[in-house]
Amino acid sequence: MRGEPCPVADNLEPRVEPCMLQTLEEWVALRHALWPEGPMEDHRSEAQAMLWDQKEAIAFLVRLPDGTPAGFAEAALRHDYVNGCATSPVAFLEGIYVQPEHRGRGLARLLCRAVERWARSLGCSEFASDVFLDNTASQSMHKALGFEETERVVYYRKPLSRS
Q1: Taking the complete model, does pTM exceed 0.85, yes or no?
Q2: Within 10 Å of residue 53's Cβ, how many Cβ atoms?
């Protein structure tokens, strides 16, 4: 009918929300998708620990307009030296994941913006991350999100004998 407003669906945009106890299982499932080598119970314990330490760490979920969780980001404040950074504390992106079928839609950017707001609220002026050298997809994502490469490092270890 002419002259009547067209109905508009609410929440046509993805939304980002802090992870909470009520969203723990969704968050844990996404963590397991990113880090499948860890048992679910370890992911659950680590996530619960983050919930109790929200002054030093935070996690966000991104939901599709229909409410489906599509990804997450976790960040922590680092007070020690962070490669390539000149200030302390530094907000450090500990993990970010968007389900493969939802990539390329700007969801990682939304997650990072939420982390950046959290970091600025705590006085941070730098946001850092790290990526394995062979993870070129993650390197590309970081560059697209405005991160700049600062260093390439190879870590070594040497076991010490008991004598």
Answers
A1: yes
A2: 12
In angstroms, rounded to a whole number, what is the distance separating the alpha carbons of residues 45 and 51? 10
CA–CA separation, 88 vs 82, rounded Å? 8
Question: Where do the domains of the chain lie, and which CATH numbers do they carry?
Answer: 15-144 (3.40.630.30)
Q: H/E element holding 117?
A: helix 107-121
> What was the pLDDT predicted at 10?
57
Cα distances from 109 to residues 48, 92, 157, in angstroms, run: 25, 15, 35
C-alpha 62: how far from its chain's center? 10
Alpha-carbon dihedral angle through residues 143, 145, 151, 153, given to the nearest 10 degrees: -90
Taking each helix axis from N to C end, the angle separating 24-34 and 40-52, rounded to the nearest 10 degrees, works out to 120
Sequence-separated (6 or more) residues with CB below 8 Å from residue 64: 14, 70, 102
Per-residue model confidence as pLDDT tens digits over 88-135: 999 999 999 999 999 999 999 999 999 999 999 999 999 999 999 999
DSSP secondary structure, 35-71, as one string:
-TTS-HHHHHHHHHHHHHTTTTEEEEEEE-TTS-EEE
